[in-house]
Amino acid sequence: MNAEIITVIDIETTGLYPTTDHITEIAAIRAEVGPGWIREIGRFQTFVALPTVNGEAVEIPPEITELTGISAEDLRGAPHIDCALSTLWYFTRMSCVVAHNAPFDLAFIAEKHRQLAGFGALPFACTRAMSRLVDPDESARLADVCARYGVELNGHHRAMNDVEATLQLYAILREKAKSAGTDYRNVVVDSAERPLTYTPPGARVITIDKTKGVA
Q1: How far is CA 206 from CA 87, 133, 141, 201, in A?
Q2: pTM assigned to the model
Q3: What digits encode the pLDDT tens for the residues 145-181?
Q4: To which CATH superfamily is domain 4-184 assigned?
């Protein structure tokens, strides 16, 4: 596997459910990645305005503000979700989209911008799935995987901070997967402890049972 152009993305949201929760922040880094090296090309980051639903303005739950540090004041004057996601779409074009727990990010993108429902049909890689494939007995949480591979993760649960760490992590896991002959492109993982709730278009689902390994 030679050098490739990727775009690492991450979103922060008001909750876990794409049908009822909303995106508050988007970040991405476009980069060229090769064996043992990374060349950053550009960055994109934006807060996203929350909508009004049934006449009521959506608010950020206090526990989410505590987790992410994002408040209503941060979103003042932020672009509408359609504008933010359209910009992300153009930023990622002609690249492989990378995210940690990609089904989560891609589910929100598909739900909040119906014209981008095929976003996940692009070539993508999920670093959470990659971690499960190369280290099936270890935790696949971003913080834990970063700690395991010596990747710095400061300010976890802020989009750009997570993107920076995921980019470094992808470069490492890419080489491990290559050495092991592991196919991770467009692969998502389903497991009993973390069931898959969204399958991106064209994705290949691998089930991991800790008692039996990869199925």
Answers
A1: 31, 9, 18, 15
A2: 0.94
A3: 999 999 999 999 999 999 999 999 999 999 999 999 9
A4: Ribonuclease H-like superfamily/Ribonuclease H (3.30.420.10)
